[in-house]
Batch of 3 targets.
Target 1
Amino acid sequence: MKNSILFLLVSILSTIVTAADTSGTSGKIQFSGVGYDFTYKPISKINNNDKNCSCEISDKEEWFTGTNAPFSEYLAVHIRGPIKLSKFAYYTSHHFSIDDNSSTNWNRSALFDNTKDFVVMDNITFLGHQGKDSNCLGKALTYVGEDAITPQKTNTAPSKYMQDLSNVEYIMYSNISCPKSSVNGGCGVYRSGIPAFYGFGGVTKMFLFEFSMPNDLEGSNHTSYYNAPNIWLSSDSQPRVTSESDYQGYCSCVFQGCGEIQVFSANATKMNSSIATLQGLNGTSSDNFYSMFSNMYGHGSFDRPINTTATGGILFDSEGNIVTFISSDITFDEELTASSINAILANIPELGATKQLKAGVKSAPTSTASRNSANLTPSKVNDWMYIFTIATTLLHYIMW
Ligand SMILES: *[C@@H]1O[C@H](CO)[C@@H](O)[C@H](O)[C@H]1NC(C)=O
Ligand SMILES: *[C@@H]1O[C@H](CO)[C@@H](O)[C@H](O)[C@H]1NC(C)=O
Ligand SMILES: *[C@@H]1O[C@H](CO)[C@@H](O)[C@H](O)[C@H]1NC(C)=O
Ligand SMILES: *[C@@H]1O[C@H](CO)[C@@H](O)[C@H](O)[C@H]1NC(C)=O
Ligand SMILES: *[C@@H]1O[C@H](CO)[C@@H](O)[C@H](O)[C@H]1NC(C)=O
Ligand SMILES: *[C@@H]1O[C@H](CO)[C@@H](O)[C@H](O)[C@H]1NC(C)=O
Ligand SMILES: *[C@@H]1O[C@H](CO)[C@@H](O)[C@H](O)[C@H]1NC(C)=O
Ligand SMILES: *[C@@H]1O[C@H](CO)[C@@H](O)[C@H](O)[C@H]1NC(C)=O
Ligand SMILES: *[C@@H]1O[C@H](CO)[C@@H](O)[C@H](O)[C@H]1NC(C)=O
Ligand SMILES: *[C@@H]1O[C@H](CO)[C@@H](O)[C@H](O)[C@H]1NC(C)=O
């Protein structure tokens, strides 16, 4: 397996092509070939004492496999100011391929709408890292108030008049509660005392946003991430353990290979749409993290919607294609037809060449597993390996 991971790493790095970046107020940025097969060791215990904390990892390997892996897992949606988010929606489809109008339609399964007198919050929980502090894991997740800063006891939407502060981040989850913290539980091992919810699941899924990214005119440029708004997605388990994106002694799952992807990541004027995943795989320092990170940028950038409101999103199709897009034709209807989404995508320019992420190798046990299961339990993997071995042995016996 190590060899195939290495091969994968090398093949990702070697497929980086240089293309002239173009830019626009509308357009799309695409990735193809998404879906990796690899194993990782999940966190089995969090040692969170104030002086020195670390995480222990299970000695049983789990598989990430299939189309869009590791983004086929549950994802949490991060919003970092200055951003005014007026709408957000999450959609799923049984099967959708870009450019194929016979694909299944998209159904809305979560909605946040802050444009009316009464805020709509269907299947959305707003959390932030404003809870109990820890030296090494940072602040724990908690419900946050209208300012997205003050800890709360209940789920509260950010105010539509919220200050456009730099580096204020809230995270959206679904309203489905996690089972209790456990290696084999649906949400893995997480910090005690936090409100824990599933993110947004599915291999084939789409997230839509209506937002603006006004300039922070009041904050101090000493603030970290000053005037650098960002919308990104991460494995839903990452924020439940740590607020740091650093290695943190195995506590950050991105170093084990869980997913993280930038949707609209902005500097003063531009928004990049970039992919950042499999960061280091076996990486043990922030160097691994950032070297992978910077190599996974998509081609092209969008203009930052400073004085305007933009509608855009990210779509993960059933063929391992990811597209981020900005278009004024986007609506947040309960159902969106395959042809309406394809028409939107067809009518906007591609900003730079599609980034090909050909992963290549598919390993034996995973080919027998369900495409839709991002996360196989170790025992299942072992059973399949066993069956696979018997099957290949029989095959050899029959054929030779
Ligand atoms: C911190 O904890 C880890 C693992 O428990 C241990 O290896 C390390 O020596 C500790 N460091 C300090 C400074 O106590
Ligand atoms: C979307 O909704 C339709 C009608 O209610 C249903 O038949 C279909 O299975 C749903 N699709 C998904 C992906 O849930
Ligand atoms: C979750 O959100 C859905 C859609 O708004 C709602 O029907 C359901 O009652 C909510 N469930 C919980 C546990 O709040
Ligand atoms: C809420 O979101 C979760 C996403 O993980 C989804 O599985 C569930 O069906 C959604 N609930 C409703 C009522 O749409
Ligand atoms: C930060 O702001 C101060 C004044 O508020 C200004 O003098 C300085 O040039 C700014 N630094 C940067 C890097 O923009
Ligand atoms: C966008 O990506 C390029 C690399 O392609 C990087 O140099 C630049 O800093 C990024 N800009 C933003 C706004 O993140
Ligand atoms: C912002 O990002 C764009 C795109 O990568 C880049 O061309 C531009 O120089 C960056 N601007 C600043 C002020 O960093
Ligand atoms: C991590 O990968 C490097 C090669 O990139 C290899 O030399 C090293 O042994 C690996 N470490 C572990 C713990 O697998
Ligand atoms: C945004 O609007 C402000 C004042 O309303 C103006 O000063 C600024 O130049 C505008 N910025 C852009 C990028 O259009
Ligand atoms: C899908 O349908 C839309 C809307 O009718 C149309 O604009 C588009 O060309 C169609 N795409 C394909 C590949 O047929």
Target 2
Amino acid sequence: MITTILAAVAGVLLPLGLSEGPFVLSNFRPLDAQYVPDTSPLAAATTPNRGSYVYGRICGTFDLMTCPGGIDPNNTAIPPSIVGIFNSIPHGSFSMQYRQFFQGDPARVRNFSQSMERAAQTFILCKDSFAVDGLIVDMSSGHPGVGFWNQTLPNVTNGATWTQDILWLEPVTECVNTNLTFDYILDSYIPNASVEHYNLTDHGGFSNLTRVQPILNRDGQHIDLIQHAYKGAVWSNLYALLYLNGTRESSFVGATYPLNSSSSLFSDSLGKVSFLSLSYLNTSGSDIEVTCEGYGGQDTANVTNVHVNCGIFLRPPLRTDGGDPRLSDLGSKWSQNTYSCSSATHASIQRVTFSTNSSSDLQSLQITRTLSGPDVLWATEKTDMKIADVDLFWGWVDDQYENNTSLWTVRAPSFYLPAGGTSMWGTFPEGYPAGAHVGAWGTICKSLSLSQGDTAADYSGRTDFAIL
Ligand SMILES: *[C@@H]1O[C@H](CO)[C@@H](O)[C@H](O)[C@H]1NC(C)=O
Ligand SMILES: *[C@@H]1O[C@H](CO)[C@@H](O)[C@H](O)[C@H]1NC(C)=O
Ligand SMILES: *[C@@H]1O[C@H](CO)[C@@H](O)[C@H](O)[C@H]1NC(C)=O
Ligand SMILES: *[C@@H]1O[C@H](CO)[C@@H](O)[C@H](O)[C@H]1NC(C)=O
Ligand SMILES: *[C@@H]1O[C@H](CO)[C@@H](O)[C@H](O)[C@H]1NC(C)=O
Ligand SMILES: *[C@@H]1O[C@H](CO)[C@@H](O)[C@H](O)[C@H]1NC(C)=O
Ligand SMILES: *[C@@H]1O[C@H](CO)[C@@H](O)[C@H](O)[C@H]1NC(C)=O
Ligand SMILES: *[C@@H]1O[C@H](CO)[C@@H](O)[C@H](O)[C@H]1NC(C)=O
Ligand SMILES: *[C@@H]1O[C@H](CO)[C@@H](O)[C@H](O)[C@H]1NC(C)=O
Ligand SMILES: *[C@@H]1O[C@H](CO)[C@@H](O)[C@H](O)[C@H]1NC(C)=O
Ligand SMILES: *[C@@H]1O[C@H](CO)[C@@H](O)[C@H](O)[C@H]1NC(C)=O
Ligand SMILES: *[C@@H]1O[C@H](CO)[C@@H](O)[C@H](O)[C@H]1NC(C)=O
């Protein structure tokens, strides 16, 4: 396909007898653009035949329910009216597809493309912005995220500069120190052995624990993740204190609570970066996730119930006995700080500026973007269904839908993606790639907490497809 894009063509001033001069931009003019295939492992792992991709949705937690605008509980087809609204501007739920997909099982009356959860290429150690098949990826620590871009470059020999408005998803996280640490002495030569004995040490997390219920603002889309993280920290510490039969009065800064691998479930999470549930000692305390996240499955799926993930993050181990942290000496002392973190996914429209001196090389692209997008009309479906029962479509929609009674709309530079049935499980929703961010958060939490069988990346090719 040839797309026409508006580009400024760059040329190099080459005065006779002198060295290469500065780039000068000529006027903006429309140019033919062509699709440039990517050759990265990620592209190799992309299921071809994208035209056969089928969007679909199922509603209901256990018993199927009829989806908004749907025909009957068994029909997974998305009504044309909904597709029309969320495709009125192609920046939303239908701008994305699962990279690897297969058709659903017709015997289950599910006619949609399902995802395969595999890693094709890891970007975890990258630090810059680059383009890969279908995406712009920014791995900078300040403003990470992905933009949805089907890569087309203008057909020019001298290079060009142009801008495009791109749908951007950004993970946002805030953390609060729980003022508790896990401390242990390395008592095994086996590098991958789990830590058998350790202390939970009070650095104020117990003795100075507030008695005031932390607040959560309920101000529409204006959510404050620090409030969520703080609420998670306070409740998490309280549950840990109760489990340890301690009180604020009996504890003190420096108090140690001995634990071992048989008294808790997570000792193999120590010694590395890990993610634990808020109730990591009291497994019965799963309701504190609801308190921190701000909604439960029985709340209404709406624009103010934003998807939030809460959990406890274990920082990398710090060696505390003064020895070299690169050496795993027997008897060495280590400490891991714990933070309560809350995360959400933030959508925006970003104006991305591309510069290239080639019309066929994605690697030579220079990518910059404005971090604050323009105000646009964001919408999500208005239903009275419960969060556990439905995943809502969302996206930038045409201004004509501003007062549409079937939508919640908000005009803003960005939009927090709403919670839905997928938020209850942390999985990749079948047929509904617009909820894949929830699966991504789930994978981060899962893969960090499991000691074996990580699904995010492995070396067998079972999940790391690029190896095969
Ligand atoms: C991207 O563009 C190419 C060329 O126009 C097209 O073949 C391909 O289907 C597009 N990809 C998606 C995911 O739409
Ligand atoms: C939905 O499918 C199930 C299983 O195939 C069937 O028992 C049920 O009658 C169907 N419901 C409707 C409303 O078609
Ligand atoms: C599945 O959905 C697609 C797209 O809506 C349609 O073309 C196809 O006929 C459907 N298949 C079945 C078995 O219903
Ligand atoms: C790119 O431009 C050149 C020269 O203008 C032309 O010969 C070529 O066909 C163009 N390629 C495409 C894919 O449009
Ligand atoms: C941990 O201590 C810091 C500094 O005193 C404080 O700001 C923070 O709220 C404490 N965390 C908790 C969970 O109380
Ligand atoms: C540590 O790794 C070795 C070699 O891969 C393996 O045999 C052993 O079972 C592992 N131990 C633990 C506790 O995972
Ligand atoms: C835990 O703390 C106690 C008391 O401070 C100390 O004797 C013990 O060695 C510590 N255990 C570990 C595994 O750090
Ligand atoms: C106790 O908590 C208060 C309020 O969170 C904080 O200002 C203070 O620094 C804390 N003290 C200690 C010893 O952590
Ligand atoms: C806390 O007290 C209960 C009841 O006395 C006891 O069963 C439990 O083992 C104690 N827990 C710890 C961590 O000491
Ligand atoms: C592990 O902790 C439990 C509960 O605190 C305790 O009863 C048990 O004796 C400990 N086991 C070892 C080997 O220290
Ligand atoms: C969304 O649902 C919650 C209940 O879970 C309610 O408190 C809130 O007011 C609703 N938001 C809107 C915009 O109606
Ligand atoms: C929606 O309603 C507001 C307030 O009544 C009005 O200002 C705006 O023009 C309406 N938008 C459309 C597209 O009708």
Target 3
Amino acid sequence: MSPRAGCTVLLAAFALSLTGCDSSLDVPHLALTKSFSRALQDCMEYLQVPGYRYAEYASNNYPDDPETKCLLRCVGLNLRWWNDTSGVQTAVMERFFQPDPADAEFENRTAECLEKALPTGSDSNDCCCSAYESFRCYLQYYGNLIPCALFYPEDDSRHIRAAQDCIQYLQIPEKLLKSYSTGSFPDAPETRCLLRCFFLRTGVFHVDTGFDVERLYSRDFENPDERYLSPETQTKLHELRGSVGEQCTEVYVAYRDVLGELGRPFFEYNVLEKAAKRALGVVCEEEPVTTTTVCPSISDFNYKELNCQNCGRLLISPTGRCSALQVRHDGYGPCDRSAYDRGEKVENTGLLTVCDDEHEHGSTTGGDADDGGDG
Ligand SMILES: *[C@@H]1O[C@H](CO)[C@@H](O)[C@H](O)[C@H]1NC(C)=O
Ligand SMILES: *[C@@H]1O[C@H](CO)[C@@H](O)[C@H](O)[C@H]1NC(C)=O
């Protein structure tokens, strides 16, 4: 979405407030949009940063103190431009800044600043500090912060949720769901319209204006693909607009011939396969466990003193009811990117399974074995 479109959303909100509705946005579909300052205010609430500090931040003054650093990390997580493991997500971050049209070197100077602030290969255990320094580089060298609410990417669980919603709305027949659940997508009118519904619901396709390639680009921020933004792609999509006379088919052909292979190739089929499995009640399938770092860990939550010295690591398998949650007991497993890059497994984890009746670890101390009391 262009910055201007973001502002239109804000104007719409303003218009709403004049009609006597409350000031909440009437959000279309299931897409997420948020402004930087809204994310900042969210995080000030989560982290209980005193309200008087907002004035400082609103005038682009982000002092070098632990509270502000962890606040910016929270903003980054909130808008998904920050990840404790992989650092700043450029495809998302870039869109919150407007470069000066006369500035030809904003990208190089930002990259230089990032390299200086966070040398590659360095082990930064301090994710608040790293997030803060990254933000400062963009603020100083990339451009001006855009005040509008902008589209930011979903996580995959919300994508699957959106696909499941569309399966229900369109009453996709079970026969097709079975096929989808095995990764096969027969070219049927239902398949075409399901894709259209999915793109609509996740906010990357609009009935009147077609595909929103900028949103697709930031949606696939983990594989930033400039081809989404290329004139060739624009031309191909433009040629398809209205040429087939029926929008489900138009979307399907655009996906098959132009967009499908960009970014995360045929990501939608992957999502639809998972959603079809859920819709059929196949929830306990085996899935590879993915790793996420959390910092600070919940038990040690005190961002003021801690400043991310005690980062925990969470292992989550996003399989609905069949999800396994592993938490490091020692609470230390930090934002050490190099350890992650070496592919080291996190040891010393507790396992909590919600899928069946077997619990690897129940309550920590039973009543009868009271050798734990140190009196
Ligand atoms: C952070 O990045 C890692 C590695 O790229 C990825 O596996 C993980 O899912 C990301 N975490 C979040 C919350 O997106
Ligand atoms: C930016 O960096 C790239 C690669 O390091 C270089 O090729 C390019 O000339 C630089 N651009 C400017 C304007 O300095």
